[in-house]
Each structure stands twice: as structure tokens, then as C-alpha cells.
Amino acid sequence: MSNEQYPREPRPEEPAAAGSGDTQRFPAYDAHPDAGQPGGLGVPPHGHGLGAHGQYQHAPYPQGPLYPPAETGQPQKRGTSRTGFIAGALVLALLSAGIGGAVGGYVASQDSNSAPPAVSAPVSSGGGEAAPEGSVQWAAERIIPSVVMIDVRTQRASGSGSGVILSSDGLILTNNHVVAPSDGTVEVSFYDGTTATGRVVAGDVSTDIAVVQVEGRTDLVPATIGSSSDLRVGQDVVAVGSPLGLDGTVTSGIVSALHRPVSATGETGQDGTTSYTVIDAIQTDAAINPGNSGGALVNMNGELVGINTAIATLGSMPGLNPGSIGLGFSIPIDQARRIAEQLASTGQATTARLGVLLDTRDPVRGALVTEVIGGAAADAAGIPEGAIITRLDDRIITGAAGLIAAVRAQAPGDTVTITWTDSPGGEERTVEVELGAEEATR
Question: Which has the closest alpha carbon to 284: 266, 274, 296?
């Protein structure tokens, strides 16, 4: 495959593809059917459709559980997990280049007639001193051989993302929105310049995790898996991926925040239901850009701690920077690994379920329960309709997305402590809840 890779925009004249598997309704994932209504943290969401050249709507500002309605009049590509919202000029974007997710404005060029810049393959500097242990170079050297570029090409569109090798025989972890537009096969490029065809084993919309299997390789270098539970705010991290098709790109930064609820809405299926992704994200200021989706976030030991998934950008309007502004979001590896193992072994992902419907307009501080599903975990624990959930264990819940993210960060069968009131400022009550399970497939 050519070393000069660029994101490729979907051609707008092409029809939208059919839905890719699961288009879960919000009730299955503990949110309210009115999720498309404006609301959240006092800032009304507004769709940010950019029109004709393959630009997409953008995901909501990460602090708010906002799920704006899909933009009308614009065909949506298969599996792209796009949403729209502007708070001022800030938008959130999934990170595949060209397809497989919203790009915060088309970064390669605002002018479709402009030629992309010439880019050559990276050149090794040869010898030099050994990297100091714990340095960015040290961490990069340990993860680069385990990060791949994933290229998707179909008759409808093409684009690229990243992935992380989990096993020497070719099991690869990536984002679902990277591979969802594929026809079931992708091209995988390795750090040594070789390529192979990969088969999409399975993917899960709700967690935005997918696994790909490369056949005929037994010599690959799997990533060393760390633990996202050990991360601390301010800790140094390194991001590696293929932004705009530039494979093996390394950037560094810190963990800016933990447990940041980041929500994105996907396509509307033929039955009228819409898929939603809410992640309990690691926020980082390491520079990541379109094409980094599915790539690695590692600690300074080179251990995988997150899967890069989304960025906040200033949009693609004239005069605004559509690329990284130091607000990147990664799926914690503890959750990503659990889901990937399930997908690889059974083709299905099982996520934790509380069993309530929530008002995502967030009329009060906390997650307002509008309905309790009979026989589900919340019902068994005695949480009533109208309850305002303010904590899950020691995590403060300020809105619906925060609760959804906190629940999905757990495993089915986990027991958590829920704190709730029956009115704003009312007397707090606590209850132990054993979370149920919800299965979903790609």
C-alpha cells in the first residue's frame, strides 16, 4: 500500500448505506426516548450540519448529556456514529479520517479542489543514544510496533483509522466507527511496511469497540496491556496512531481528566431507531486528529491504557481550527479490553444495565428517572420513578450522560451504591444495586 495516505471524503452524491447491525433504542441503555430533545447543563444543543462535501454533524460537548436530533436532508453513512452540537464554537468529533465518524471539519483541506500536501514515509534516524526509561521515546518505542493503520474501501466511500494488536496471530482492537462502513474486510498496515487483509469479527455500537482478525500472521507484536484504573490526573501519556493516514505518528501530553462522559449519536436505522454511544472517557491534551480513532494511548511504560476515539474541535467554519485543540478522549482500556474479549469469543458485547429511563434534558442537577423498567436492577433495589440519582459509588452524577457512562464503566453483575433524592435538595437515600446485563451486537 502506498506510504502516502490521506483521508478520503465520502462522495455526497452516493446513497446512504443500510444500518450496520444494532440500532439500540435508548431504553435498552438507560436513557430517555426524548434523547433528541434539546437540553443539558442549561445550554441548548444545535445541529451543526456543514452541507455538501461529506462533512458530518458533530458529537455533543463532553460535559453535557446532549443528544440532538439528526440533521435532516443529509444522507448519513453507515456506522459513522455522528452527532451534532455546538457550545459557542466547540464541537466534538469521532476520529476516523474520511469515513467511520465525524471529522471536526475536513482537516486535510477545506477546499475540495486543493491538492493534499506531499508526504513521504517516515525515515529512521538510525543510531543514537538509548531512550531514557520513562521518556516519551521509551514509551513510543514499546508501542509503535503494536499500532496499525486500518484502511476501509468500499464502493460508497473510503477512509482510514487505527488499531492496536492484541495477539501475535493478528487480533486487533479498534473503534466500531472505524470499521462499521466496511464490507466486512479491511486493509491493515503494520509498522514494518507490510500489509494484510483483516476480517471484521464483530463490533458494538454502544461502546464503540470492534475487533478485526488478520489471517496468516503469527509474528505480530501485541501491545502490553496496562490498567486504566491506575491512571491519575496530570500523569504523562503518549498517543500513537495514523492521523490523516500518517501511520506511526507519536504525540504526548497528560491525563487532563478522568470519567468524562462523552456521548455521540449514530445513524438512524430503517426502523427509525438511533444508535447511541456514551463512553466514560479519559481526557487528554495529547494531540490526536482524524485517523487516530482506534489508536493507542499509553502510559510512560508503553502500556496500553486507552483507545483514542474522539476530540473536541472548533469546527470547520472559516477561521476556526478543525484539528486538535488539546481536548482528546479515549475509551479506558479496562472497559475496551473486556468488550473486545467478548466480541472475539462470542460476537456479542454484554454491558451493564441499571434499568431506568432518564430525562436527558436534565431539568435538575442529577439524572432524573422518568421510568423504571419492571424487574430490572433499579426496580429490584427500590429506586422509584421520579428519583434524582446524584451519585454512583463515589462518583458525582450531574446529568443523564454521566449516569449512563458510569453504569457502562461497570461489568454486569457488579454491585454499586446509588445515591438518590426525590426532589432537588431533598434528603439523600442510598441503596445497593446489582447491575443487570444488556446484550448488543454489531
Answer: 296
